[in-house]
Amino acid sequence: MKYQYQIRLSPQEAANEQHIKRAVSGHASIPKEEITAINILKRSIDARQRAVKINLKLDVYVNEKFTEEKITPPEYNNVSDKEEIIIVGAGPAGLFAALRCIELGFKPIIIERGKDVRTRRRDLKALNIEHIVNEDSNYCFGEGGAGTYSDGKLYTRSKKRGDVDRILKLLVGFGATPEIMVDAHPHIGTNKLPAIIADIRERIIACGGEVLFETRLTDILIENNQVAGIKTLSGESIKAKKIILATGHSARDIFELLHKKNIKIEAKAFALGVRVEHPQELIDQIQYKCDSRGEFLPPSPYSIVKQIKGRGMYSFCMCPGGIIAPCATSPGEVVTNGWSPSKRDQPTANSGIVIELRLSDFVNVKENPLAAMEFQKKIEQKAWLEGGSTQKVPAQRLVDFTQGKISENLPITSYKPGVTSADLGNVFPEFIHKTLQEGFKEFNKSMRGFLTNDAVVHAPESRTSSPVRIPRDPYSFEHVQIKGLYPCGEGAGYAGGIISAAIDGERCAEKCVESSQNS
């Protein structure tokens, strides 16, 4: 017989299979020798009380054999001679759209402005060490998109958008650890994700799809309000009646192209702020309420939401045991983001701390759908100037930031291009600066010890989501104006992370195929 139970154990007990079996035996009044197997379905940490507990959801097998499920990708057929669908962008939306196209019997042609994951690393090194920004190959552009080298977090609240477990299983099938099916906040890690992305690409090619790197979209060919194909920077034209536009939230040239061609786009509100770095040991002490977390607890994350002067201010993309990365996509701007390796074993913790912006914060949004993007760009350019016109980031110690003091000195942080002591009030508009200053004081009321000069504020964290929405029909997913154009994922304003982008990619592929089959 198989039974399902939920139990709470200490971290030490939850790390030991025999302890779990003993606890289940006592909880369910089942003799321990009759328990033939225990399969952990879900695991989460409850640190609300001083004694930290691990919540486990279990399948318990009593006098019954348990065979572990081997998760593999679907059996994809060869689609080399099938109808073609162009997919612009090889991020999670584009890659999962391509896999779904193959599954449904259509040939995907992915064009990606950046490089494959392995070659891309050289440009990241040049960005970190030599401060050279390659506009087509950086932390945002290239195979796998922004998520490849910015942490690989798989947690999403978008349960209503699609089948999260299906995406997780596909990732496991392509090499991710099965633990992502179990953990409440699953995470692959920036060091592990590139190999998984490469395996997905190889499967797409093996099944007859195409993946064209260093191929930048420069025009969308349209005839009678119907997609006819694309043109690339090299001058090549690729014909197709269906285009999935999955370019990510930083492809400003695509937004400008659509606007120039009078293809409807809209300004979209987003969140903006800073990225703050603490010693991980301090975050552990605050969150776990102990001097040392010990060997059975992972580096602690945190999540805070406050209302400051009528605006939401919250932690975003928190990276325990992580690193702050330079994420500019053009020379003359500074952008920060964060990531963690799979073991989350770095000595520092960082998080974006951002405030919600409104369309009323931007100038002439009705006349200019690029207004929010231009607001974002202006702050990034100011940060570049304050940092010394390099990829060094302007920074302040956290208490100094709240008091409006330029820090006399700054510690070395995980941000490899380096930091420059500056007044971040010169980077942000006053309403953002003042809200952040007040908000950090409120944060300290929820996490005593958070407000410390051992923490360093890096500016800005500005690429939280797309500043533009590309409107689409809610049923067909086609652009409201152009037939055969399917705005998709984060860049179009319909996703916010790896999982939700992958789900949206699959759904766009399904709508493409459905439209082709019905025409």
UniProtKB/TrEMBL annotation:
Taxonomic classification: Bacteria, Pseudomonadati, Bacteroidota, Flavobacteriia, Flavobacteriales
Protein's name in the database: Uncharacterized protein
Entry-linked Pfam families: FAD-depend_C (PF21688), Pyr_redox_2 (PF07992)
GO molecular function: oxidoreductase activity
Ranges of residues in domain FAD-dependent protein C-terminal: 269-464
PANTHER family from the UniProt entry: FAD/NAD(P)-BINDING OXIDOREDUCTASE (PTHR42842), FAD_NAD(P)-BINDING OXIDOREDUCTASE FAMILY PROTEIN (PTHR42842:SF3)
Transmembrane segments: none
Organism listed in the record: Salegentibacter holothuriorum
SUPFAM superfamilies: FAD/NAD(P)-binding domain (SSF51905)
Domain of life: Bacteria
Domain (FAD/NAD(P)-binding): residue spans on this chain: 84-253
InterPro entries assigned: FAD-binding_protein (IPR028348), FAD-depend_C (IPR049516), FAD/NAD-bd_sf (IPR036188), FAD/NAD-binding_dom (IPR023753)
